Amino acid sequence: MTKLFFIPLLTVLFLFPAQVPTTNVDAFWDEMSRTVAEGEFDEYAALYHEDAVLVNGISGESYPISSALDGWKQGFLDTKAGKMKAGVEFRFSKRMHSETTAHDTGIFNYYSQMEEQEPQLIYVHFQGLLVKKDGEWKLVMEHQESMATEEEWEKLK
Questions:
Q1: Counting runs of H as helices and runs of E as strands, what totals does the chain give?
Q2: Quick one: DSSP state of residue 117?
Q3: Of 24, 95, 110, 141, whose CB is crowded by the most CB atoms within 10 A?
Q4: DSSP letter at 118?
Q5: Distance between CA 141 and CA 131 in Å, rounded?
Q6: Does the pLDDT of residue 90 top 90, yes or no?
Q7: Confidence class of residue 157 from pLDDT cuts 50, 70 and 90?
Q8: Is residue 16 very low, low, confident or very high in pLDDT (cuts 50, 70, 90)?
Q9: Are 108 and 140 in contact (CB under 8 A)?
Q10: Domain boundary assignment for the chain
Q11: Do 126 and 144 contact (CB within 8 A), yes or no?
């Protein structure tokens, strides 16, 4: 009878391989935060796959990331020039990773503050789909699902 117990257990172990540690994907999100805070537009844009898509659930649109980057570029230039402070932080509710693919779900907190103005904070539910290309993680799809609350953000600590 004990032999029958081990057969299903071994089957489960082979069907569901061990989780790959998230540390290498974590470095991607850390780099995204760094480039926003330092206003490094070209480095930020390079984090996206050349065919990346932004799915904007807030506006109900989907478009190439290049269009989104065009709209975000001035904020990076203002940050780099010291006219604005900006930052983004990520917290995750679900993460699925392999050696070459990753899908992260969570909330990001983006803030910006122009000189002598109050900071603007937003919290957004998001999903990110990444692939490892030439040894580097690239964001293929960013889905900004909906606005989140600070309370939802705090629950993901």
A1: 5, 6
A2: S
A3: 141
A4: -
A5: 10
A6: yes
A7: confident
A8: very low
A9: no
A10: 21-155
A11: yes
Give the whole-angstrom CA distance, residue 136 versus residue 43. Answer: 13
Is 83 in a helix, a strand, or coil?
A: coil
Q: How confident is the model at residue 3 (pLDDT cuts 50, 70, 90)?
A: low
Residue 67 has pLDDT above 80, yes or no: yes
Helix, strand, coil distribution of the chain in percent, nearest 5: 35, 45, 20
Q: Residue length, the chain? A: 157
Local confidence band at 20 (pLDDT 50, 70, 90 cut-offs) = very low
Structure tokens at 82: 């010291």
Burial class (CB in 10 A: 0-12, 13-18, 19+), 151: exposed
Name residue, tokens 């900071």.
119
Rounded distance, CA 157 to CA 152, Å? 10
In angstroms, the CA 58 to CA 104 distance is 19
Q: Which residue has the tokens 């002598």?
A: 116
Name the one residue in this structure whose structure tokens are 């540390």. Answer: 23
CATH architecture of 21-155: Roll (3.10)
CA–CA separation, 36 vs 111, rounded Å?
10
13 pLDDT more than 90: no
Q: Do 73 and 110 touch, CB atoms closer than 8 A?
A: no
